[in-house]
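Obj.: predict assembly geometry.
Materials: sequence records (below).
Method: joint structure prediction, all chains together.
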Amino acid sequence: MIEPWIILALATVLGAVGMWLLLPRGTGRGRAAGAAFALAALGAWASLVPGLGDWLSNSLFGVLAAVTLLAAGAMIACRSPIYSAIWFGMTLVGTAGLFLLTGAEFLAVATLVVYAGAILVTFLFVLMLSQPEGHTSYDRRSWAAVLSAAAGALLIGVLSMTLTAVLRGPVATAAVPQTVEPTAASYPLAQLGTDLFTRYVIPVEVAALLLLAALVGAAVIIGPGRTHPEHEPTP
Amino acid sequence: MNSNIATLHSYLAVAAVLVGIGLVGFLSRRNMIVMFLSAETMLQGVSLSLVAWGRFHNDLGGQMLVLFIIALAAAEAAIALALVVTMFVRSGKLDIAAWQDLREADQPPFEEADLPPEPCDEPAAWPHLAPAGIEPSTSDEKENYRPKM
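Observations (raw structure tokens):
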């Protein structure tokens, strides 16, 4: 039996190398190897997660998690921003499925509705702003690819290590008195709405103000006086 | 109880990887729209962990927080896309490296290296049809224009 931290360190290094190879570096070479490395890292890392071990009972979660993570990886690896936007939509679908699996039905629908709208807008932006002559140079080469891949893999490794240490330790098991398995009756949607407009009514008002401020702010930022400074009247 | 902890662990692990992937994309990609999408991916990871904790404690607080995160993300998307459009109008490209004048004083500038040509960089090839009728007058630009993604 190999120690868990060795597997985790191996997964971290493999993940860093894989993500570095996947990022656009100016050449298309090594991207297949990068995908293989990243998949191997994901596999090694997934073997440490206890809930993922039993594939039969967790197959739905496994499929959704795989869809989410692979789509997220493809999103940062795709050179064309349009494909990135589409892969991000796939990530959203996976996350909404995970929400649904957790019992957060409203959040799943809200994620799809709000983010799908945002994604559509982003998609339009990409279509409007992208260059028609193939991939641009800034889409073909990323900067600080080594450092950022290492930083991301290290973050994942440290977070997983902390998770393993905390959730397997005696502290966490002692601190959890009883948790009821959520059923349809224990997570009523009506309870969410009641809470939202009684206990959290002031945050709702603040969020409304924030959205209004964002609306006005976006209009001010993009206003005609700012975008064409050369057209301003000279004093 | 053990399976509950295992479920929580799985969800938190997925959330951690989502945050990590989003971090990599945000740090390394230079297209401002892709950077924006990466930031949204990090938000998704945080939302997932909040929902998982909410289920673990059988509390609606986690879901409520995610609800506000979604509202916040909508506001963020409006502001970020307005900024992206403004910066695109000013610099003419979505490259974040066009704004590297804002870096720290002691940092070396980022220099664009030459890139090998892509396979799709070949000149456009149009099919030739048998001429019929009167030839219309078209400019060279129209004939050679070929949109590619």
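Conclusions so far: The two ends of chain B are 51 Å apart (CA to CA).
To do: check interface contacts against the pulldown list.
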